[in-house]
Amino acid sequence: MAMLDGVRVVSFTHFLQGPSATQMLADLGAQVVKVEPPAGAFERSWSGPDAYLNGESVFFLLGNRNVSSLVVDLKDPEWVDVVLRLLDDADVLIESFRPGVMERLGLGWERLRHRNPRLVYCSLSGYGSDGPYKDRPGQDVLLQSLSGIAAVTGAADGPPTPVGASIVDQHGAVLGAFGILAALHGRERTGRGARVESNLLSAALDLQIEPLSYFLNGFIGRRSNSGVSSPYYKAPYGVFATADGHLTLSLNALDVLAAVFEDDWFRSVGEDSSYQRREDVNERVAKHMGQRSTDEWSVVFSAAGVWFAPVNTYADLVDDPQVQHNKSVIEINHPTAGAVKLLGHPVLYDGQRPGVRDVPPDLGSANRTVLTDLGYDPEDIDRLQAKVGN
């Protein structure tokens, strides 16, 4: 599990995109120092539904395991010098400030690549490092709207509908970690670091590689009147009401539908016309689905090899047999928060999932260790610590 052992990462990240990308690297053994202001990173004092465990933000706990915390004052030249010394021997810098902030702090790419030519410098932003939107706030639901995700989701006569999770933030995190690993691999050949950039707009577009490619090549999709089909897929494709709940159907041939519903009407449509007539197909499927319970249809569909799935709530999800088998949910024991359940690292390596070496850190818990390792004597450490109140 220590595939990135020896890789030293200095993280100037906050909110979700940056910390999540950094946590992926830390899970694999990278030594990550999270640089925080004296008041702590934003996510220490914020949590979406005001979810705190004994005063600890769940939002902070979900994205900062296996890292250490260094409190600095980046407005103080002496502390900036500490950070520069730390970066002189680092492999990766990852930051998620708005474009221009790191340059104003004296920690921009142009300066650092001359000090440390092997440094991989990763910037994660909302829209990119330049361009007309570079100074706009970048946040998940804003990008779902701007990128078209919200506009293609929901019923044809309903409002645009964002997805109910921070999918753009998290995909941006994955792209950031991917870019860092690619640059580290390239450095093995060239001996030189690289500037890696990703942003939420690019992540939102990448999530739509299929529908956007259809659109770009002249195929114009429309949301379904029933609200159950993708703008670009043949019916049935989406959620249908049963007599007592809901089931989701996906990519089933009309012959299969004719058999399970005992209705030859589906064969009369013809596969070649199934996209053009998807509203008719949706209506017919919906009529059949409402006549039996979810459990009854599940038995019928399983026997016939129909592509379907239950519509799980989160409560259903955590009890799902495959989720439990995959051990997707882990539990850590935090000294303040107590028992905390989180999602584990999403990838297996030789059948194993990386574990938790260190729980999300207390603010500034690594200060004295980092300063000592950088060669500061005890008197200087005490003086620097007094400046940041740590």
Automatic annotation (TrEMBL):
Classification via InterPro entries: CoA-transferase_III_domain, CoA-Trfase_fam_III, CoA-Trfase_III_dom_1_sf
Please provide the record's keywords in A-Z order.
Transferase
The GO molecular function terms of this record are: CoA-transferase activity
Q: What is this protein called?
A: Racemase
Q: Among its keywords, does the record have rRNA-binding?
A: no
SUPFAM superfamilies annotated for this entry? CoA-transferase family III (CaiB/BaiF)
Q: Which Pfam families match?
A: CoA_transf_3
Q: Is Ribonucleoprotein set as a keyword in this record? A: no
